[in-house]
Here is the input.
Amino acid sequence: MRAMSEFDLHCHSSISDGTLPPAEVVRRAAANGVRVLALTDHDEVAGLAEARATAAEVGITLIAGVEISVSWRSHQVHIVGLGLDPEEPILLARLKAMRDGRYGRAERMAAELARLGIPGALEGAGRHAGGSIIGRTHFARFLVEQGIAKDVKSVFDHYLATGKPGYVPHQWASLADALSWIRGAGGIAVIAHPFRYKLSSNERSNLYKEFKALGGEGIEVAYGSASAQEQRDAASAARRHGFLASCGSDFHSPGESMIDLGRIAPLPEDLTPVWSKFREM
Here is the structure.
């Protein structure tokens, strides 16, 4: 069994591409021993009110969060905002524009899949989205449902990852914009799952430097998809650049996620955890 953490600062609900409603995510986290949870849906904060109310019921702390998609050079990276004001007007407006752009991308992805002989993908993905904005994970669930792949990971590996036949590039927020929105809403910006991106060592170093120069403060050191070596490398980056250390399961679904809520390796004791900043805020 994976180590347990009382802090889980990266997870998703059905408001974006998770399968559980916000209240169920919170209850599951509490049952797993999590004391401080951040709900970080993709480009969306609409689930936070429900999550906060449930957190009060079950006696855990809910940190308002979001995960913003960023176009950095030729890569897509994700920036998590923690401890922000989910009602800040500029943040809300910019996130809505991001979600509007996601639907156009979904239409283009459905057209690519139809060209590959997979019709009805937009409607199928929309059904899995259940009214939330359609993302790649919703398309992946539809393809699994159709028997085209055995699981969501296989769909990404063969169809939806960068360079695969169903992948559609998209211009997301700039790194500067994402950090401006997070900081403007009083939040802390954290680089999500830093070793999920296909970056060279030099590119990753440049990302860290640019992120730091723009006011970014944290990096995920322990997270669901990280190997032991990747966690050591992320910890080294935190030391080298003076980043706060964060941790998160990146939980989406009981049947799909690599680890469950709270089942995260402990952070190295010499790193300053990002939650030390929550007390100041």
